[in-house]
Amino acid sequence: TLPNHSTIIPIPKKPKITGLNDYRPVALTSVVMKSFERLVLAYLKNITGPLLDPLQFAYRANRSVDDAVNLGLHFILQHLDKSGTYLLKFADDTTVIGLIQDGDESAYRQEIEQLAAWCSRNNLELNTLKTMEMIVDFRRNTPAFPPLTIMNSTVPTVASF
Question: What CA–CA distance (Å, rounded) separates 105 from 84?
Fold first, then answer.
């Protein structure tokens, strides 16, 4: 085999396979190529590190979804003295936090639309099957919120994640 050749092996994510999304691709790569990749990766990290958004939690060392959740909770708790409803939105590894005032959800919905458009412009697939909406509302009588739709897919609302 060539040094820059990799073999992709599909590994099942769960016992019962229902479609291609139930597989995780694993690449088997030569030792020479893996060593070269590490050298190039170290070089690229030095160049791109300062350019990354400080609120990016995915694919960064010592960062996780827990950091995004804690930051979201911090923003919510920071504004408890103000009126309004805070929403925490997870779309895979992206968090969108929206404040709804006087029942007007337009800014929040527009933020979600902009996220979907940005993903499309940057050749990223927004996986709506793994996207959830969590509504945090500290009012005594929580109103019913209309379902969130992203790219013609209704996003489930969850109490926790």
Answer: 11
For residues 27 and 117, give the distance between their C-alpha atoms in angstroms, rounded to a whole number. Answer: 31
* Span 7-32, pLDDT tens digits: 899 999 989 999 888 999 998 888 88
Q: What is the pLDDT of residues 31-44, one digit of tens each?
A: 888 888 899 998 99
Q: What is the pLDDT of residues 139-149, one digit of tens each?
A: 788 778 888 89
- Tell me the three state secondary structure of residue 16: coil
How is residue 134 written in tokens?
A: 């969590």
DSSP H/E element including 42: helix 31-48
Residue 126: helix, strand or coil by DSSP?
A: coil
**Closest alpha carbon to 2 in 37, 38, 29, 21:** 29
